[in-house]
Amino acid sequence: MAARKKILLVDDDDIIVNLLSHRLSGLYEVESTTNPRAALRLARAQRPDLVLCDIDMPGMSGGDLAYAMSREPALAGIPILYLTGIVSLEEVHDLDGMLGGRPGVSKQAPLPELIARIDALAH
To answer: Is 92 helix (H, G, I), strand (E, B) or coil?
Structure first.
């Protein structure tokens, strides 16, 4: 049996973190945090296969986290999938699934779509 992919979920909203952790934990090993600054430490320690990250967070945005990860050789290759409530499901589709130059998904996306995006990016 293949090892489950490890996902680091980062969102400042406890409800989103709890909901997605619960929904994704049957398929993936999920580590989560509501503190984007802690996410960098967790990424270093856990070496996830993918970071699923909200864009708009206080103190450190998803873009800031992506930039910080890109500056560290050990983290630079970890794919980041932006998760956002700012852009609707239709708008993400209109943007060909790209948000700020990175793959993204709306928080409104159905679970099978989120899973498909994760599976396409996680290595």
So the answer is: helix
